[in-house]
Design brief:
With 378 residues, the protein is α+β, with helices and mostly antiparallel strands. Helices cover 33% and strands 22% of the residues. The strands form 3 sheets. A 9-stranded mixed beta sheet has the order 5-4-6-7-1-8-13-12-11, sandwiched between helices. Strands 2-3 form a two-stranded antiparallel ribbon. A two-stranded antiparallel ribbon has the order 9-10. The chain binds coenzyme A.
Amino acid sequence: MNSSHMPDVVISGTGLYTPAQSISNDELVASYNTWVDLYNAEHAAAIAAGELPAMQPSSAEFIEKASGIRARYVMDKEGILDPRRMVPHLPERPNDAASIQCEMAVAAAREAMNQAAKSAAAIDAVIVAASNMQRPYPAMAVEIQHALGVQGYGFDMNVACSSATFAIQQARDALATGSARCVLVLNPEICSGHLNFRDRDSHFIFGDVCTAVILERAQDATADAQYLVVDSKLQTIYSNNIRNNFGFLNRADETGCGRPDKLFVQEGRKVFKEVCPAVARQISEQLEQLDIAPTDLKRLWLHQANLSMNQLIARRVLGRDPAPDESPIILDEYANTSSAGSIIAFHKYRDDFASGEIGVLCSFGAGYSIGSVVLRRR
Ligand code: COA
């Protein structure tokens, strides 16, 4: 909520690290289908006896039609596409070397710092917000803070696909109360690490990327392009329809180790049906409270999970079909990059904003969690 004595907070820079390697639907499906053939041959007797169901092939056509996804960037293509492995190969590093999430985050951070015209000395808080951290501690944020030469504090947080918008509100709150002057939010998402590439229903869903956002008090900002955080609203509603049971207690019950529920699993249809109306309602209510008409909106930078979901949400919020530039899509090229998706859309599609123009950045995902941030170009 806005309050007159709180200092204005702006987003003054964003950054994007895109992995060098990309996998097309055709490549992914070829690998999956080779694995299906190998599996069915290996289990031919059990399948013939009706003891095991035969695995069904995947299809690039289905993937594009059901999701809008055409490709995804990944940190290691070879390991994922090897039908005898189907897991990225990311060798462990010694403790005194930079972690892989740290490397991605530093690259994204540098672009955001350049845009915001902020040196490490000006930043005093780092929040790493993502679906999965590569280790529990020391926090990824503290390692990244050290790598950048930032003083102050850093911490990790996880609200799955909504991690970035939830972190933006934490940053805004810290700036408003004065506990920080300039906050760097980072979303290093290695989704290929928790995606089950042997699950036909979801093997195509995710990609890897890292985004960065710099927030600071408006009075301190010098960047060319600044976006005032007019309002932010967070909501969580418990659901098991998107779940990952990986955790430190897995070793306390050996029978569950390596089971598919220790990776991403979802009931996609239910997620679609339950999340879309909740997201549209949240944005509409927020705009109404702020006295902003849907016709006053130039753009929605929505979470990038599924093309039809975004079309449906935009249609409900605007009351008509969105023009392509009103709800830009990046999931065709990036797939679902969890918390980073809406930030990529914002990063790539905001330069045409004139002073005073308004957009909504919105994420949604596991939890369920929904975060919507109303932004106005200064
Ligand atoms: N290739 C070919 N066919 C496939 C397939 C694949 N890879 N995966 C599933 N199918 C088949 C199914 O077996 C089913 O066949 P049937 O009708 O004969 O039973 C059919 O395609 C439809 O499957 P369904 O899972 O109902 O597809 P869908 O239209 O719901 O699309 C998702 C699947 C995952 C793309 C979609 O549900 C979705 O995006 N949901 C929201 C997910 C989301 O946003 N999650 C948030 C994560 S942050």
